[in-house]
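Colleagues,

For the teaching module next term, I've prepared a clean inverse folding example: a structure given as tokens, and then the sequence designed for it. I'd like students to try predicting residues themselves before seeing the answer, so please don't circulate the second half yet.
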């Protein structure tokens, strides 16, 4: 395999293992270990590690490899504040056009049904992906392409935070689904203030416990 293609594969697979929680924060990785697992030389793995360090997912340790970086508490708060502002603004914009609400609600219910399909303790990464898709559907309902693009840049952080927060707890999985259902009902009612309050409680209850 040419080195650029090998480096891309090492990058994609290692990043996936970090985002899914397979590689927990604090885990030490060596270039040799990853190279052996993927059947390639160390050079493309080194390039992959450099990219992941730039994305603040790994921290390089000279002559040892790299360690998986935890989501900093301050950054987690920043992500949650941004999500609350963007999602609330999306609903505020949506309800200005009442005729658009039924279609948006249908999209949210479909996203919630998809998340319910992954409500299993051993399928937390798929559940986290579906969770992000549900909240992304809220943003999309607002019809603001600019904030939609910005919101997508938060996806990797959201996924890591959700996998860590839920940690396979069936009771907490059920709570998240119930709160999502409540958010859909509020969107349908057009009550922006109630949505903002419920969303803040949902995000705080999920990530600031």
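(Answer key — instructors only)
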């Amino acid at each position: 395999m040419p080195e650029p293609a090998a480096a891309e594969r090492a990058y994609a697979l290692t990043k996936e293992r970090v985002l899914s929680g397979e590689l927990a924060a604090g885990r030490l990785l060596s270039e040799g270990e990853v190279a052996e697992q993927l059947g390639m030389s160390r050079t493309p793995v080194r390039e992959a590690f450099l990219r992941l360090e730039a994305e603040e997912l790994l921290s390089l340790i000279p002559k040892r490899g790299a360690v998986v970086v935890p989501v900093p508490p301050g950054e987690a708060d920043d992500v949650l504040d941004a999500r609350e502002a963007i999602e609330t603004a999306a609903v505020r914009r949506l309800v200005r056009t009442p005729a658009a609400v039924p279609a948006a609600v249908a999209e949210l219910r479909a996203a919630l049904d998809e998340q319910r399909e992954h409500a299993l303790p051993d399928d937390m990464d798929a559940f986290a992906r579906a969770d992000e898709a549900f909240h992304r559907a809220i943003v999309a309902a607002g019809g603001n392409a600019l904030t939609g693009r910005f919101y997508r840049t938060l996806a990797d952080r959201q996924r890591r935070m959700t996998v860590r927060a839920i940690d396979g707890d069936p009771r907490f999985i059920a709570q998240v689904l119930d709160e999502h259902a409540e958010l859909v009902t509020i969107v349908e009612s057009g009550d922006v203030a109630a949505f903002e309050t419920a969303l803040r409680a949902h995000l705080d209850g999920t990530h600031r416990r």
